[in-house]
# Entry
Amino acid sequence: MTGMESDPALERTVTELEPIDGLSLVTALNRYVGDLSDHHTFRLGQVPYLFLSCGRWPHYHAPTDTPDLLDWPKCAAMTDLVEALTRDVTTRTRDGPWEGFDTTATDIATMRAALAPLLDGYGIALASRRDIERVVALLLGREML
# Structure
């Protein structure tokens, strides 16, 4: 999930979520993922946003991305997540700052929770934004250890 950096209220929405069975939530700055969807317009217009993704795979936005390949239990869990996010975000005032809010602590916590075996295997303690950048580089195949 990206976009918490667009408003502090969104970080509170994410950190106060009840866990959703079947999902591991990893947060990161949008600059690590890029504008892969419609949230691009909101980001450019300086409208707070959250972007959810299950990542790219060989069938991403291709004709071979057919319903029989979908993980339906995960789709149901994502639906529950979107509902919880939507219900919460409507109760919060979003005042900014725009694209400058520091989400390092939450990004570290979600990455530790979801990626512990990977982090341990590479000896990454994950204690700073620099460590997050190392993990992102590793995941993108630009190993920076």
Summary: The chain is about 45% helix and 0% strand.
